[in-house]
Amino acid sequence: MMNILENLERNYRNKPFLDHKRAVLSAPVRHIFMIATLGYLKSYKNDLPRILEIGSWFGASTLSWAQGLEKYFDSKGSIDCVDAWQPFFDIKNHENEDYVYEMEQLLEKDVVFKIFQHNINTIKKFTDVQFFRTLSDNFFEQNKGNLYDIIFIDADHTYNAVSKDIRNSISMIEDGGIICGDDLNLQLNEVDKKIANINKNKDFIQDPNTKKNYHPGVTIAVDEFFGKVNSWGGFWAIQKKSNTWHNISLKDIPIIYPQHFTKELLYKAEDHYNDIKDQIL
């Protein structure tokens, strides 16, 4: 673990560090659509968008939001990052999952939090970035009345956690604002619903019908609140308009790749985008 931090100090001064196999935990292509979401929001809001990020990990998503603010709002706006940066998996439900043990180790040693701090310090000072090292439940309770233009949900993916994060987010989103999230690999109409419900408090399972892996907690919770939503490579978003929810379209928003990505992440994003570009909604 110390080798990671030593490498950070020696080789990544004043530049982001994402050169770790767990730095970006989901499909890199989703960051393209995060940036595009700010392009979409530009038509509804001219200045100082407020972004709330539930689950920040290494800070890759924070950097992507900051790049979107730079592109569309001259870096002016704010990002509030909420993450406990502490072990959270129920190990009993995730036996034999190597990625779980690797993530828990990184969290136990506080490596993830230190890398996050390093990465947000590379963001332009025009953007107000603050972090809250706490559980999302605590943050929502302590910040009632705050309103945001974008709330991004990417924390604990088990059903109870995602459901609470969505419910709390609904109470804190501006009219015209967007609730969005990561890891909607499959929607409820695409999976075996019985199997999904049996496993809704597991992070990641395989659907027996499609043979594709997905996060059942995310799939069920998103469907319960919003039904079928538009999604792009697993990134999903829905917009509030006069207390009703509407799908958005990112079809005509320019494609911008994250400038903080490593060559490997950039290659994966480009390759994935080329696979799905003709189906973009």
Helices and strands, with pairings:
Layout: H1 2-11, H2 30-41, E1 50-54, H3 60-73, E2 77-82, H4 98-108, H5 111-120, E3 127-132, H6 136-142, E4 148-153, H7 159-170, E5 173-181, H8 193-198, E6 205-206, E7 213-214, H9 216-226, E8 230-232, E9 235-241, E10 244-246, H10 263-276
Parallel strand pairs: 1-2, 1-4, 2-3, 4-5
Antiparallel strand pairs: 5-9, 6-7, 8-9, 9-10
Helix pairs in contact: 1-5, 2-3, 7-9
Q: Strand-and-helix sequence, N→C?
A: HHEHEHHEHEHEHEEHEEEH
How many structural units, i.e. domains?
A: 1
User: If classified by CATH, what would the architecture be?
Assistant: 3-Layer(aba) Sandwich
**Overall morphology:** globular
For the record, give the distance between the C-alpha atoms at the N and C termini, rounded to a whole number.
41 Å
**Relative strand content:** 15-25%
Count of discrete alpha- or pi-helical segments spanning 4 or more residues:
10
Please give the CATH class. Alpha Beta
CATH topology: Rossmann fold
Overall average pLDDT: 92
Residue ranges: pLDDT <50 for 5 or more in a row? none
Can you say what the CATH homologous superfamily is? Vaccinia Virus protein VP39
Helix content: 25-40%
Structural class: alpha/beta
Quantity of strands, as a count = 10
Q: Biggest sheet, open or closed, and with what strands and sense?
A: 8 strands, mixed
Rg measurement, Å: 18 Å
